[in-house]
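Reviewer 2 asked us to include a model.

Predict the structure of this chain.
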Amino acid sequence: MMVLLAACASAQQVKFETASVKKGECRMETSIDPGLITLKGVPLRGVLITAFHVRGDLIQGPGWLDSDCFDILAKMPEGAAADQMPAMMQSLLAERFGLSFHKEPRQLKGYSLVVDKGGPKCPEDDPNKDFMGGRGTVALRRGGGGIKRAMTMEQLASYLSGLGYGPVQDLTGLTAKYDIQLSWAPDRDFEPAPPGAAPAASPNAPPAPTVDLFTAIREQLGLRLDRHDVAVEYVVIDHIERTPTGN
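Predicted model (structure tokens):
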């Protein structure tokens, strides 16, 4: 029943005006101009991420989703809103790849992002100051990283969910956009890169952070990560063809 409902829902969704889908070499080139979507050499999991607006690890399907890459050129209908693009991508996947799917709610061990006892330390974003224009830097990895970007707490939780500790749910109750400046050192159990794998730091570079992610979030943002069972929704692929139908 869930498969049938998913297929019917996909068929009713708005569609691209024109679309070309071909197998290609993996190179991950993407651009989204007004009305035109260009994906070159993108693994099909990346296309599914766009279609369902979820993290890649929440998509359950065949292993070749990560190894088979495609070139997709799609034109949106005139007057279509940008937020309709994921629905159009789902329709395209149903038509060209025979996609059928269902969604499964699951409980996973993760974290809740909450305000620490001293209160938040990240200022609200001032649009007049255009803090990084929302286009700041994000370097996410358990082996040390940093964020300097204007974002909501929900967006911050989403970024942190990608680090491999588990899903992070925003329970701060903070609804504005904030200027997030966060940097952290590698975990103690994180295996460092071998000597010579990274270039030497510039003598003028700021000192490297010395605290782990959990401490950095408390000290730099006035927030906290608490252990928490998080409800997530998996997209489970029931059927998908490896070779798309012709254009």
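The longest strand covers residues 223-239. The chain has five helices and eleven strands. We have added this to the supplementary material.
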